[in-house]
Design a protein that fits this description.
The complex is a heterodimer of chains A (about 110) and B (about 110).
Chain A lengths: L3 E4 L2 E4 L5 E7 L5 E8 L3 E10 L2 E4 L6 E3 L9 E3 L8 E8 L9 E2 L3 E5 L1
Parallel strand pairs in A: 2-11
Antiparallel strand pairs in A: 1-3, 3-8, 4-5, 4-9, 5-6, 7-8, 9-10, 9-11
Chain B lengths: L3 E3 L4 E4 L4 E7 L6 E7 L6 E6 L4 E3 L2 E6 L4 E6 L8 E8 L8 E2 L3 E6 L1
Classes of the chains: A mainly beta (about 110), B mainly beta (about 110).
């Protein structure tokens, strides 16, 4: 049972570099989302999608882009990495965004920006 | 006022103790409520949903108080394996809006 798969698990970037965090789910979930988690800040929503072709901004979208071309995949792009984007990133999916079903998380991607 | 607020802890309790966490939410129209558990350096996982009438799952009891806008989680007979961060999660609106997470309450159960 793959569930939600995130890659890479660890990444070190230099300031100004770009990269893409990959997220894939095999549960046919319509809803997918990206969170970042920082000490003392809890989980903060970056972007989310309620279906293929539909994306929306969360609480902290600046510096990040997303797209949803398929139901399965929801990549998160860092356009020009900054040290403030050092964080743990979680992708999550569910049948419904608002709590109609369990939200399943990937194992997380630990990003360090130097 | 933040949408979902929790006491960050840490709560340090001995094995066998009963411990309770509260969480307050700001939007009285909130529809759905949950407790998630997050182990150190792991992803959050659903612990239990919180129903209006209250619900129990083994040693865990969740309560909802709509009038005072808070939910609670009670853990009886604490085990070492209960050590984790407990996240209060609320759907503040209906429809296709994302869940809002509290910052979490850290529990350490000590032998």
């Amino acid at each position: 049972n793959a569930g939600v798969t995130q890659t890479p698990k660890f990444q070190v970037l230099k300031t100004g570099q770009s990269m893409t965090l990959q997220c894939a789910q095999d549960m046919n979930h319509e809803y997918m989302s990206w969170y970042r988690q920082d000490p003392g800040m809890g989980l903060r929503l970056i972007h989310y999608s309620v279906g293929a072709g539909i994306t929306d901004q969360g609480e902290v979208p600046n510096g990040y882009n997303v797209s949803r071309s398929t139901t399965e995949d929801f990549p998160l792009r860092l356009l020009s990495a900054a040290p403030s984007q050092t964080s743990v990133y979680f992708c999550a999916s569910s049948y419904h965004p608002g709590g109609g079903g369990e939200l399943f998380f990937g194992e997380g991607s630990r990003l360090t920006v130097l | 006022r933040k949408e979902v607020e929790q006491d960050p802890g840490p709560f340090n309790v001995p094995e066998g103790a009963t411990v309770a966490f509260n969480c307050t939410y700001s939007n009285s129209a909130s529809q759905s409520f949950f407790w998630y558990r997050q182990d150190c350096r792991k992803e959050p996982k659903l612990l239990m949903s919180v129903y209006s009438s209250g619900n129990e799952d083994g040693r865990f009891t969740a309560q909802l108080n709509r009038a005072s806008q808070y939910i609670s989680l009670l853990i009886r007979d604490s085990k070492l394996s209960d050590s984790a961060t407990y996240l209060c999660v609320v759907n503040p609106y209906s429809g296709n809006t994302p869940l809002v997470f509290g910052k979490g309450t850290r529990l350490s159960v000590i032998a």
